[in-house]
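#structure-requests
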Amino acid sequence: MSAPTHSTPRRAFVPTLNKQCWGFMIGSTFFALGSAPGLSEILGSAGSNLLFFIGAWFFTGAGLIQVFLSGPISVPVSYHPGRMVRAEWLTASTQSFGTLMFNVSTTAALYAKSVGAQDKYVWAPDAGGSVAFLVSGVVGFIAYAHVARHWDFRHKEWWSVLINFIGCVAFGFSAIGAYVLPGGDLVNTAYATWGTFIGAICFFLTSFIVLPFWSRHRRAAGDAAS
């Protein structure tokens, strides 16, 4: 009688910084393509909205990974009320909420036709997501300043925090410009287009510069040189 064979257990999905970075980078690429000056005119609103819709799902996936990797929600402190919400978790959760709002707005943009529907189901959640991103950027900025105590241009983390904040501000301008007036026109088309494009480029760079690949590459180069 043959010995029983043991099947190799399937490996569950494991959230990693690498997957988080690639999720944000891919999502940012879709947003950048959908809002790129010149290309967005060729694609038309339908083509751009489809790219935003796809990119938002990558944003959401990366945002959920970011929350998972951010660690516990709070830590004990010696003063009242005894626990404090961690800035890293607050930054991640706020940004993740923003990505969910972008899911709502980009999905609604695929079918919203009337001005009222665009304001209620597209612009409102888009503005909410942009505000959430801006809050997360500010919290991240303050948290890094508190830990690092100074700004150091030599550290990639400093650049990541700064570029992320610029991207959050750009998305804020995009939301302002994208408000739909009663006549169907946007408040400021340039704000809406360039804000989204600049923000997407910033979010791409934010994740690109902290990719674990660079750290592994430096370690490998150091080992080879020693």
